[in-house]
Amino acid sequence: MKKPPGKLAAVAGAAAAAVALTAAPAPAAPSTVWTVTPSPVGIAAQNTTNVVLLIEIVKDNGIGIVCSRSSFSGSLQSATGNPATIGTIGAIAFGATGAPCTSVLGNVTFTSATPWSVVAQDHTVSTGVTQGHFGNVDLKGTVGACVFRVRGNLPVTYANATGKLAVASATGDLTVVSQTNCGGAAPVGASLVVKADHLVKKADTTVVPTIVGTNP
Length: 216
Known about the structure:
The protein is mostly beta strands. It has one domain. The chain is built from one helix and 16 strands. It has one helix spanning 5-23, and strands spanning 33-37, 41-47, 51-58, 61-67, 70-76, 79-80, 84-94, 102-103, 109-112, 116-124, 129-143, 146-159, 164-168, 174-180, 191-202, 210-214. Strands 2-5-7-10-11-12-13-15 form an eight-stranded antiparallel barrel. The radius of gyration is 25 Å and the shape is globular.
């Protein structure tokens, strides 16, 4: 039985419309252009206040660690994307010779597997502050016979006006992935919460690098 020509035309028109609707790609969001000045630039940073760490066994409860000295070094460069990797941290130290990190369990030493990535995600023009994180964070802590390892990301903000890089992590950002002889002091799955402020300068100078994110 033949369909009336009018119905065939309507079906064909509907099919063409469906093809047109499915074929049209969604508009891509513009990529953020991250301008680092100067770029590329080697950086060095020192803490401005004590670095406070907490092996969080239960929410807001755990073993506190305080480091009076900390530093890191690496490099930054301009990039495009959102998020975008705008640098790397090649060396980082919590504590220093003669100024170890301390806890109720004794002195704590940290070693890190690097590089860590420096990732930019958002920029507030009015304040000149960039939000992002350190990625690929891999730290080993040792206190007495206890050895624990944490991995994850560290949220950071960077202020162009001062060069202050603030680390403020939360539960789940850095997680204990393995431990030996730690028992309940640093169980697998616990979080290492880090609060720290550092001043960033171009290596061997007093120049403060700037980071600006713009959308085309």
